[in-house]
Amino acid sequence: MILQEYTEPSPEHNLFYLITLKCTRLRIMNNEDTMQYVCQICGYNMAGYLPDFCPFCGAAKAGFLSAEENSDLHHIEGTQINASVTRINSVPALGYEHAAYRVVADGAVFLIDCPSTFDRTLPQMDTILFTHHHFLGACNQYRDLYPARVAIHEADFRQDLCRGFLFDVLFSGSFCDSGLHAVHLGGHTPGFTCCFFNEVLFICDYVMIKQGKMVINPFGPRDATRKGLARLIAMIPERPVTIVCGVDYVMDYPSWEKHVLQLIG
User: Domain containing 107: what range?
Assistant: First the structure.
């Protein structure tokens, strides 16, 4: 594996571009022949190894299927959010799998987080961009199919759950690419990064709905997550946000903000 560091040129100035995007490209062979397994409880993919228990949820390996078996049982369906954004989920539902979002940006197509199911009918994307390392899904397989570059914050790249996954770009801080703004928050995970495109905010599971109530993700340093959420809310006046896309919900921004302000007050 050869690591070659370089600095991207700075994009046009805007309030959401905080530092120059510094990337590390990892030039390695593809993984087309790597065995991959999918936990049917949570949707976590294990690339190149078969543990006794799921590294994410702890389920026993009796509840795993190979990626091929999983693709025989599940497929991908999209729900249109607006003209540029489509919500992506496995059908039938794959445990408590997260939602991913396909974004047709300004000259590039992004997949924000990645579905757990590999489905060759999923339309092509240029970049798979992760909010954090918990929801890597079948990115290895989509990376090989198109190919697509895979990007994650360098702080999350170092985490154990990234074992077996291939990444093309490691970024630090926040950046703008093809009109999509990625803002590093930290908190829930060291590299947690939310995204904006036009009027849509992609927040994944930084805040979640549990038993009908909005809650801050309890995993990771809770106080740091709360502070990250407060910083995010402070940024909103600079953006015309109307829609929030979460881990398993889509909400109008005013309703979402009303609940979130109670969490950081």
Answer: 33-264
Element (H, E) at 245: strand 243-246
Residue 1 burial class via C-beta count within 10 angstroms: exposed 0-12, middle 13-18, buried 19 and up = exposed
Q: In which element (H, E) is residue 68 found?
A: helix 67-73
At 28, phi and psi to the nearest 5? -140, 165
Residue 33: pLDDT band (50, 70, 90) is low
| Neighbour-count burial for 159-179, b at 16+ CB within 10 Å, e otherwise | eebbebbbbbbbbbbbbbbbb
Taking only the tens place, the pLDDT of each residue in 145-181 is 998 999 999 999 999 999 999 999 999 999 999 999 9
Q: 247 with 205: CB under 8 angstroms?
A: yes
26: in domain: no
Is 14 within the bounds of a domain? no
d(CA 237, CA 244): 15
Number of other CB atoms surrounding residue 71 within 10 Å: 19
Q: What is the pTM of this model?
A: 0.88
Q: Tens of pLDDT along 114-130?
A: 999 999 999 999 999 99
CB 134 within 8 A of CB 161: yes
